[in-house]
Amino acid sequence: MSNHDQDVTDDFESAGVPDSFGRLWTPYRMAYIKGGQDQVKTEADCPFCAGPSRTDEEALIVHRGEHAYALLNLFPYNPGHLLVCPYRHVPDYTDLTQEETMEIAQITQKAMTVIRAVSYPHGFNLGMNQGASGGAGIAAHLHQHLVPRWSGDANFFPIIAQTKAIPATLGEIRQQIAEAWDEVHA
């Protein structure tokens, strides 16, 4: 075996091994990522386009604005994990109008204030995954994630047991956030 072949073999054998970055490899999530890409290609297939035509309870919507809305993530990382979506079926942040961009930002700020008032998180993760290679589960319709975080909320349960403990139902969480939306001032 040449030195080059040995280097490639060493690299291959170390793939997936935790390193100084503390990576956690979650290959089981690839089925969710690929599944979303295969299923949503048009507005007719898009759950974010269909959601606003349903009741707030059915679609898990906590707030409807003029250009965008907020709903609970059907597969939350933590309780209160929201998605902020434009009503328009657009795939990229650069496709948004100024009005949509502003309203998504305003809804995100308000959502953070409301979630702080109802569940007292210690922090938040905010983010948009752009495109399939960027990790978007549904790349065809832009959506921003807002994930409340608490110290010590991450553990190995999802990785080892493929289980996530969420202490309330999505319906209960949706109701708490939706009811507090107009009461809490940003």
UniProtKB/TrEMBL annotation:
Keyword Glycosyltransferase listed: no
Superkingdom: Bacteria
SUPFAM superfamilies in the record: HIT-like (SSF54197)
Chain span(s) of sequence motif Histidine triad motif: 141-145
Matches recorded under InterPro entries: AP-4-A_phosphorylase, FHIT, HIT-like, HIT-like_sf
Enzyme class: transferase
Keywords assigned: Nucleotide-binding, Nucleotidyltransferase, Transferase
Active site: H143
GO terms of molecular function: ATP:ADP adenylyltransferase activity; nucleotide binding
Positions bound to substrate: N73, H145
Domain HIT residue range list: 48-156
Enzyme Commission (EC) number: 2.7.7.53
PANTHER family linked to this entry: AP-4-A PHOSPHORYLASE (PTHR42997:SF1), HIT FAMILY HYDROLASE (PTHR42997)
Protein name: ATP adenylyltransferase
